[in-house]
Amino acid sequence: MKPPTLASFALFWLKIGCISFGGPAAHIALMHREVVERLGWLDEKRFSHALGFCMLLPGPEAQQLATYIGWRMYGAMGGVVSGILFVLPSAILLWVLSLLYVLGGNVPAVAGFFDGLQPVIVALILMAAIRMGRRSLTSPAPLCTAVASFALLAIWHVPFPVVLLGSLAAGLMVPHWFGSGKSNILEASELGGRSWAGWIALALWVVPLVLLALFERGIFTKLAIFFSTTSLLTFGGAYAILPYVAQASVANGWLSAPEMLDGLGLSEATPGPLIIVLQFVGFVAAFHQPGGLSPVVAATAGALVATWMTFVPSFVWIFFGGPHIERMLANPRLSAGLAAVSASVVGIVASLAIWFAGHVFVAESWSINWFAVVVFFLALAGRRLGAVPLVLLGGLAGILRQIF
């Protein structure tokens, strides 16, 4: 099939960015249906190899896959177009929703919506842990890794990076426990060498970080450093990094646990990658600590910093680091290490569900929030409806509770 013009290609990715609800599995299925089955831009083997490559990189795999497809078809410009437009609709929509959230928090109907939303998000996190467990915990070693990761985080409060690195080390040391099969990735030679686009992407990531550190000593520098760090640790999907983000954000006083849950709910209701929730964290953090700016201006700047530092590194991995990283990932021992990380992520996500549940189901007076408990179990029972309908129904239940 004749490739589309770059303008048509851009409109295609803008459409995908507007309709990509449902998490990374749904995003990848949508791209496969459109790019492979309907349009024939990539064949099955190429798409599968690209997906395997992107899944082994830190960061949002769906956005990286979109960037990779654009790079394959049009070079760096195509990667920029597809990578940005896949995220842009969700970023704009979440900014609008975040603004309504901070300005309308005292409206009873809005408060009721988020009261109903929070137990639904706890249910969605628990369901994510179960789905990942079925896929990753296929032998005793991964199961023990998941249980140990859960205990280290939930009971002993070991820092998230330590748990993640410990799991990786276990897989590297005893690869036969986790399987060391062949990685489904492209040969490095197929990806070509480094390019000017990689250097530009790296500069766009590092230079703002350095300038903020030199000239701004407030919330924006803290956000830039924090989200640059999380961009290096995001293996296994957005849910894997959320315990680290949630607990660190609450500990830093940027936002409360209920606010974090509300942000997750808003992110579930928007298209695009779930990791866009980090934009909400940056928005609310800067809104609470605006410095000399107006709260809304500061919040917008905080959202921009969080989004920039979360997504720009993905372009670095695709444009510049891809061939070099892929040579390392061809090592079966490292593949086993990443399998151990995937198992660890199950326990990490389960600990996140428990952490949030303690804030949602138990009131400050140590009484049980029975409304939240009922909504939680109803969400579990209606899991086949999908995330967006459950979010909306949970919010509606909260509004009705406020009215009646």
Task: Give a concise summary.
This protein has 404 residues and is mostly helical.
* General form: globular
Q: Percent helix among the residues?
A: over 70%
Output the number of helix runs: 19
* DSSP E strands, number: 0
User: Uncertain segments of ≥5 residues (pLDDT<50)?
Assistant: 181-193
- Strand % is under 5%
Major sheet, described briefly?
A: none
Gyration radius, rounded: 21 Å
Q: Decide which structural class fits the backbone.
A: mainly alpha
Report the mean per-residue pLDDT as an integer. 86
Task: Report the span from N to C terminus.
Answer: 58 Å
User: Could you give the order of the helices and strands?
Assistant: HHHHHHHHHHHHHHHHHHH
Description:
Helix 1 packs parallel to helix 5. With 404 residues, this protein is mainly α. The protein has helices at residues 6-19, 24-38, 44-55, 61-74, 76-103, 108-136, 140-154, 160-173, 175-178, 188-191, 196-215, 219-233, 238-251, 257-268, 277-288, 295-329, 332-361, 370-381, 387-403. The radius of gyration is 21 Å and the shape is globular. Among the domains are: 6-88, no CATH class; 108-183 and 343-404, no CATH class. It has 19 helices and no strands.
Topology record:
Blueprint: H1 6-19, H2 24-38, H3 44-55, H4 61-74, H5 76-103, H6 108-136, H7 140-154, H8 160-173, H9 175-178, H10 188-191, H11 196-215, H12 219-233, H13 238-251, H14 257-268, H15 277-288, H16 295-329, H17 332-361, H18 370-381, H19 387-403
